Amino acid sequence: MEAAVKQSPATAARPSAVAYRNLVVATIGFALTFWAWNLIAPLSGEFGLGLSSFQQSLLVAVPVLVGSLGRIAAGALTDKYGARLMFPLVSALTVIPVLLLIPARHSYGAMLVVGFLLGLGGTTFAIGIPLVNSWFPPSQRGLALGVFGMGMGGVALSAYFTPRLAEHGDNLPFLVVAAALVVYAALAAVLITDHPDRKVPTASLTRRLGEAGRLRVTWELSALYAIGFGGIVAFGVYLPTYLKTWYHLSATDAGTKAAGFALVTVIFRPLGGWLSDHIHPALITSAALGLAALTAIVQAFDPRLSPGGAIVLLCMAAGLGTSSGSIFALVSQVTPQPQVGSVTGIVGAMGGLGGFVPPLVMGAIYSAKDSYSIGFMLLSDLALAGCVYAYGRMRNIQRQQRMPDPAPQHSP
């Protein structure tokens, strides 16, 4: 049956129905596991533990750290065993820490331990990228990967629905997400299909990661993604705390506005991928990070939330979302198909780590200075550095539109 899925050269530019099915199922799974990954953040101030700003920051940052580092292994294992096994497996395993949040919610130490385990949900990004990349031709990968990236809207789902579900029962958010993951894992085991031409690497995990790590472009893309996607993750997990602390919003109002921020990043991520299919992705990345740098400077001056601050934060979200889509469009162009998972794991890990540090920095700065301005200025500096580097160096990497599986691009 799978043999019938193979595309002839004449139809290679037209993705099959199976390709779109895999894209849709993977995107849904990405969203659900990201919701699970972000379950703690919207409720971090509601557990009744009397946490300081820094303790709340650490609590929401631990899943980000573990999920980010776990992407390295998840990407390499996907190269070896395929997304058909990895996606339902990881989704099912994520149910365990989600349910453990129920007995752990009254102990800070227990929450840190469960948050560590909850990081597993953040690894599915490195599973879906190689799956989608294998089913779509190079000329359409930017948009396809951008659509898959919309699954990070799970952060928006969590920010909006988690506090509202909690109003009807302290444990209800965890039970709903756990049930959704169980159903998804069963469906994914049936609906996700690895490409029949998928090349299974024979080298060991250590060797494959080493080969990916020796490519200069892996670390260049990692740095850019740490700024772009790291900014999204950081604001996704810390924005509710920032809005409650600085603008004195309720948990529900802060969650709603944080969901709006996340929704904008979701919408603009496929736009960044689509633009990268028509314009060099480095140029799109440079412009998007430039916008993020400008808006971070404006927000550092603490504008009133309505309407000025809200507009600034949404424009920042647009810039960060666009850059995260364009950066992975570039990954798909310069990475050979058998290494996409390994490179994705490293780049995705650095992006997630980029989201681990800012919440801790923002919490520490606020505790010390009673202000967030320094944190926003640091973000603007990093975004501006990424803007300049993407334009000055990354735009010189040639596009490889006519090659079915791009060869690795070595630096001169």
Strand and helix layout:
Elements: H1 17-37, H2 53-81, H3 83-104, H4 108-118, H5 125-135, H6 138-149, H7 154-166, H8 172-191, H9 205-213, H10 216-246, H11 251-278, H12 281-300, H13 305-334, H14 340-369, H15 373-392
List the defining traits of the structure above:
412 residues; disordered N terminus
User: Span from first to last CA?
Assistant: 45 Å
- The gross shape turns out to be globular
Secondary-structure element pattern, one letter each: HHHHHHHHHHHHHHH
Give the class from helix and strand content and strand pairing: mainly alpha
Strand content: under 5%
- pLDDT < 50 stretches: 1-12, 399-412
Count of strand segments? 0
* SS element count, helices: 15
Protein model, in words:
The protein has 412 residues and is mainly alpha-helical. The chain has helices at 17-37, 53-81, 83-104, 108-118, 125-135, 138-149, 154-166, 172-191, 205-213, 216-246, 251-278, 281-300, 305-334, 340-369, 373-392. Helix 2 (53-81) runs parallel beside helix 5 and helix 6 (138-149) runs antiparallel to helix 11 (251-278). The longest helix is centred in the middle third of the chain and has 31 residues, at 216-246. The radius of gyration is 20 Å and the shape is globular. The model is unreliable at 1-12 and 399-412 (pLDDT under 50).
